[in-house]
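Q: What would this chain look like folded?
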Amino acid sequence: MHAIARATRTGCRHRSIFASTLSLHRRPVHRLLPVTTAVVAALAFGAAAPANAQGAASAASDAPVLRLERVLGASRAPGNPQGTAFVRARSISGDMLDELEMKGDAEVRANGAVLRGDRILYDYAADLLRVRGNARVFRDGALFTGPALDYRLEAQTGSMPEASFTYAPRGASGTADRLEFLGPELTRMFGAEYTTCTPEDRAWWVRAERMDLDRVDQKGSARNATLYFKDVPIFYSPVFDFPLGDRRRSGFITPSFGVNSKVGWEASIPYYFDIAPNRDATVEPRIMSKRGVLLQNQFRYLEPTFRGLVQYNVIGNDRETGRTRDLISTQHQWQGRSGLGAGINYNRASDDLYFVDFGKDIVAGSTIVLPQDGFVSYAQTYWNTAVRVTKNQTLQDPTAKPYERVPQVTLGASRLDWNGLDLAISADATLFEHPRLENGTRVIVNPSMAYPVTAPGWFIVPRLQWHSTQYDLDPVLQPGARQRSRDLPIASLDAGLVFERETSLASRRAVQTLEPRLYYANVPFREQNDLPNFDSALADFNFAQLFNENIFVGGDRIAEANQLTAALVSRIQDAGTGVERLRAAVGQRFYFDSQRVALPGGVGLREARSSDLLVALNGLVTRNWLVDFAMQHSTSQDQVVRATAGVRYQPRPASVLSLAYRYKLNELQQTDFGVQWPITNRWYGVGRFNYSQRDNKWVEVLGGLEYKADCWALRVAAQRFVTSGDNTTTAVFFAIELNGLGSFGTSPVDQLRRNIPGYQLINPPPRQPGRYDVYE
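A: My prediction, written as C-alpha cells:
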C-alpha cells in the first residue's frame, strides 16, 4: 500500500527499501543523501533498515513517526510549514538538494496543489518541477491536464501546453493552447474555450483569445470573446466576464429582452456596482419602443446598526403622455445598541398610472396606496415607545385613501410571570387627518392582567382589561361636542386540553393530537354611534378571530360581547421530527346577547345566536398530495358564504398540478389552475389560468414551454393580466439560460414562481462546493 507521511532524516548516508514517500523542504537543515526506492510499504509503521550495527540506536530514534489526526484539514496538521512538499512514486532517485527524479505514478503535494505525471524531475536550485507524460495539476477544485508541465513550488507558477481543464464545483470544463499559473489564485489561458456542457452535448462554449480564472474574485474574464451556440457565433465582446462562484462583483449583468403591450418591445441593460461588501448599486436603462428610456437606479447599504435602500426611476419624455414620469422609493432603518431606533419608508409616483404602465406583473400593476412613513422608537426590557408619522399617496381610486396619522405616539409595557401574573399596558395618542373626512385626536389607554395556569395536557388563562378612549374632534366637520369618551371593562377566559396518540400517515410513524378549546368573552354595551371612525373595520372572520373579544379591528369600535367560542383541532405530526403534516379544525362562536355596536351603515349588527361555522383541513394527505380547504358556513342563512378549496399533486421535482377554487358570497368566484409538467424528457409545459365566473372574464392567464438540455435551458411564456378596471397588460417572455454563464432575454422565472404553486427550476444552480470538493 502507499503510505503518506512527512519524514525528516538526519545522519549518515541512508538506503531503505521501504521509503517511497518523502518530504521536501526549501529551508534545509540536514542533507538528505541519495535515496532509491522500490516498493511502497512500511513507512507508516516507522520501520527503517539500520545503516550499521553501531547506528542502530540512532536509526531507531530517528525513525519517522506518523501523527494521527481525528479530523482531516490543514488547521489540524501543525508542523506543516509553507514550502513543504510531499512526494510519492514507484521509484525515487537522485539528490534532494540538487536534482531528484520520480518515476511511475509520480506525485507531488505542495501548498494545496497535487501534481501527477509519468515522470517528474525536481530541480532544487530553480525550485522547478518538470512533469513529463500525462501531467495533471489539481488545485482549488480545478483539474488541469496536458502532456507536460513546468511548475515552481513556492511561487506556485508554471505553464502547461495543450491543456484541458475541469472545475467540478461549477460543472465547467475547457481547453487552452497554452496555460499559465500566475500564482496560487490566478490561472491564465491562451486560445481558450470554456463551457459547462458535457463532451457528448457540447451545445455552447466561449472561445477567447485570453481567459483568466480568478479564484479570489470567483470570476472568469475573457478578452476578444465569442459565444457559440449550436456551432453558431451569437455574441462577441472585447471584454466578457462570467461567474465562477456566487461572489458579487462589478460589471454588466446579462441583458434582457421582451415585449409588453404597454411599452412595446423592450430591452434592459443593467450594470452592477460592487461598491463594498456592504454597499452596492444597480443602474438599469429600460429601453421601450413605445415610450423611450426609463432609467432605473437602486442603491443599497447594510451596516451593523442601520440599513437601507434608495430607488429612483425616471423617464425624461414618455412618448405616450409627452411628459416626465418618475418613481422614488426609499427605506431606511436604524437600531442603536441603547434601544433607540428610527426609520423611514417613503414612496412617491409622478402619476396614478405609473404602475399600470410600467408594472411587470399583476401585483405591481394593482398598486393603489404608496406609504410615506417615518418613526423614532425607544425600547427597553419591559417597555417601549415610538413616535410615528404616517402619510400616503393614493393612486387610481381617491376614495381608497386612508387616514393620515400626523403624528402617532405609542407606549407599551409588559411584565410576564410576575408572581404568576402577566401584566401589560398599551397607550396610543394619534392625530388623524383626511382631506374630505372628519379630523380629530384619539387617545387610547388599555391596561390588562392575566393569570395563566398551564400544565402538560391542559391550560386555562383568565384575563381582565380596561379600555379607555378619549376624543378631541374638529368641530367644523363633526357637529356636536368636541370631547367624547368611551370606557369599557373586558373579561375573557381561555381554556383547552391536548390529547395525543401514536398513529401513522403515508406509512410513516406519526403522533395525532386532539385539542378541544373553549373561549368566553364578556364586554358590556356602550353606545358608540356618536364616535368617529378613523381606522375601524369589520374583522375578517377566521380561526384567529374566533379567540378575540372584538369583532372589529382598529380603535374606534368595540363590540359588546357575551359569547362562547368552541373549537376542536386535530394535528398529525411526524413522530421523528415533530413537523406538522396535516391539520383539521372546526369552530363556532355562540352568542348569549345581540350585537348593537356597528360601523356607519349598520355594519356589524347581529341578532343571530351563533356565528358562522368554520371548517378547515390542510396539509399532506400522502407524500405527493397536498390539500388546502377552508369553509365558512352561515347557520342563519343555511348556505356557504366563503370557501377556498385547493389540491396539489407533486410526484417528483419540476412536476406539479394544482387546482383551486375561491368563493365569497356576492363578491368573488374564481377558479385557478396551475401546472408544470414534463411533456417529453426535455420539454415541460407551464401555465396558470385564473378565471372569474362572477365577471365572466380571465383575471390572469400565463402559458409557456420550458426546454431542459444538459447545459442550457429555454423558456418561452406569454402572460395577460388585469391591472385596474378593464385595463389589461400582455407580456411575452423569451430567455435562453446557459448554465454557469447567464441568461439572455427576459426570464419568466419570477412570474412562474409567483403564479404556479410548487414551481421548481428545471435547471437548478449547482450546490455550493463543500470542504472536500477541493481535495484530491
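The first strand starts at residue 21 and ends at 24.
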